[in-house]
Amino acid sequence: MKVITTIGVTKVYNPDKIPVRALNGVDLRIEQGEFTAIVGPSGSGKTTLLNVIGGLDRPTSGDVDIGGADIDAMSDNKLIDFRKQHIGFVFQAYNLIPVLTARENVEFVMLLQKRPKQERHDRAEELLRAVGLADKMDKRPSELSGGQQQRVAIARALAPKPDFILADEPTANLDSVSTANLLDIMARLNKEENITFVFSTHDQRVIDRARRVITLVDGKVASDEVRG
Amino acid sequence: MVVISAVVIGIWAAISLSGFATGMIKSYVNNAVQNIISHIQVHQPEFLEEYDVEYYLPDAPAVEQVIRSEPGVKAVSVRSLSSAMISSAKGARGVRIKGIVPEDEAQVNALNENVKEGEYLSAEGKNAILVSVDLAKKLNVKVRSKVVLTFQGLDGEITAAAFRIVGLFDTGNNPFDEAYVFVRREDLNRLLEPTDGHKYGVAPGALAHEIALMVDDVRSVDAVAARLREKLPGLDVETYRQLSPDLDLYEGQMTSISILYLTIILLALVFGIINTMLMAVLERIKELGMLMAIGMNKFRVFIMIVFETILLGLVAMPIGLLLGYLTISYVQSHGIDLSTYANALEDYGLSAVIYFEIEPVVYWQVAVGVFLTAILASIYPAWKAIKLRPVEALHKI
Ligand SMILES: Nc1ncnc2c1ncn2[C@@H]1O[C@H](COP(=O)(O)OP(=O)(O)O)[C@@H](O)[C@H]1O
Ligand SMILES: [Mg+2]
Q: What is the pLDDT of residue B289?
């Protein structure tokens, strides 16, 4: 089983101008199979934390270990390759390539991994069906609703079979019906396929669905509770 | 879009400027050829150095006959020439007199069309003279005023004769206009030739120093000149390029001037493309950040941006070339009227209406140049893009 651990992670932006301490000593352990929400007021460091545990950004100090690999020791290009294998990202917005259809967006990641054509095709279809978009495969992002776009983004994040899916406020731009819908799909994938989801949010309805809730305040873990 | 318009405008400007420069030069050369020099001139070898009446053409009628019978020769004008002092009540100036046969001269150059006031020289009346508008102003004379020409005859005697101005001309080339006056050749010869003409080997009225001719096709100038040189040993047969080395220089410069303009514009274009592509990269920072986050490596991002730029350049290129072509074609037939600056232009021997012209090879130079420029200019933005850290990219809105 893969685990992400952070030990004493800090992140300081603009160290030479006006330093902003976005993370201030975070110790966490996230295991495969979790369905975890990272919550906290705006500016508390949620995005920064997700970036750091996903290897999108490097901490100023402290250690990040993703599935036994030391991020610190990797070059930028190595890190990109590593991320491609192990981490899937879902962003709040601007997340799909506008000129590609839903299917092409999902296939694109696998293309970057140089998967054979047939496999790309089959897997994209399977994933889009899993997120309930069987009939929207050939639509472009502009023809899809926000909720549907986010589901394509999840299908895309799942395509390389990553160990963890990190989602930064995936429902921030969605209405409540789409939000509930998206969470249903995420919860089902988590339960049936044992897919790990770590998502940041400040929406109480989303928080209520999480099995573990990590609360950040001023770049520190203020509470970490596991439910039922 | 911005890149496309920048490239379109750049190409258009390069072609138009090149057309403008070529047009200016051609206009200058054509003006000089048509109004002043003609295609080929034949002299006694010493004449151009000394400009002295005694270096007349031996047996001008025979020479004229040879030239007139040469295939490819369109028009011939036989002239006698002399340096002189022209004086009016206001003052005096040094000029050169061209003694012409009016009908012949009109075939060789546009002098008759350049008469702005009064009349062109005709067969009637004795001692008629054409002076330029500019010279008339300087001498404070008008049409029908009298001027006195003082010059040295063949026998070395100084003669003075009164001439009546019948017309004022303006070739558009100020230095030429102020330096030359035109009279009938028979009038000039009567004054230049000594009364016992035979002593000098010249039949009465046959004195001539210069034979100017036009050929049917400019491109055959050198060939015609070469044939005439064969047939007229001992005489100087010179084309307009030899007569006026500046014309040769200008003609030779046409290509280098287009290339110069092209280079300047391409340089501007490099910065334009860099700038706009950089903006495009910044605008798409999120998209690029996302692409990097989902695993697109830097090499691919780099290639992608270079390709995009080249593609934009390729889209823009035909549009720019077409616009440039249309501009050239339009101005080639309609011309642009620069009369407002006519005075300044005429000081340099240029006409007020410029017709664009272009060497077809310029289109190729522009196309290839722009293509290379687009590649070159895409490298910096692409390099900037891969230096972005994905988080920073995603963080910016
Ligand atoms: N790239 C950056 N440069 C400078 N400051 C940043 C940057 N990213 C985030 N910050 C700052 O770090 C703090 C935490 O930001 P963030 O992780 O985005 O919080 P959240 O996602 O909880 O709103 C905020 O004060 C924010 O302004
Ligand atoms: Mg955030």
A: 79
**Structural domain range at position A85:** 4-226
Put simply, whether B287 touches A (Cβ < 8 Å) is: yes
Interface test with B, best of A76, A82, A97, A200 (most B CBs within 10 A): A76
What is the predicted pLDDT for the residue at B388? 72
| Average confidence (pLDDT) over B119-137 | 90
Look at residues B36, B191, B221, B200 and name the one whose alpha carbon lies nearest to residue B127.
B191
Q: In the 8-state DSSP scheme, what is residue A174?
A: S
Q: Which tens digits make up the pLDDT trace of B275-315?
A: 877 887 777 777 787 888 877 888 888 888 888 888 888 88
pTM of the model as a whole? 0.61
| Minimal-distance CA residue to ligand 1 atom 25 | A43
**Which of B286, B287, B292 is opposite residue A80, by nearest beta carbon?**
B292
pLDDT at B352: 64
Residue B357 to residue B261: CA distance in whole angstroms = 15
Residue B198 banded pLDDT, cuts 50, 70, 90: low
In terms of Cα–Cα distance, which of B181, B165, B198, B11 is closest to B79? B181
Q: Domain tally for chain A?
A: 1
- Identify from B294, B301, B397 which residue to disrupt to test chain A contact, counting A C-beta atoms within 10 A and taking the largest count: B294
Scan residues 5-24 of A and list those with Cβ closer than 8 Å to B: none
- Residue range B212-223: average pLDDT? 89
Which CATH number do you get for residue A113? 3.40.50.300
Distance (Å) from the C-alpha of residue B358 to the closest C-alpha of chain A? 41
Name the residue at shortest CA distance from atom 16 of ligand 1: A45
Ligand 2 centre and the CA of A46: distance in Å?
6
Calculate the CA dihedral of residues B137, B143, B144, B149 and round it to 10 degrees: 50
Contact B395 A160 (CB under 8 A): no
C-alpha gyration radius of chain A: 17
What is residue A54's three-state secondary structure? coil
What pLDDT does B397 receive? 41
Min Cα distance B317 → chain A (Å) is 24
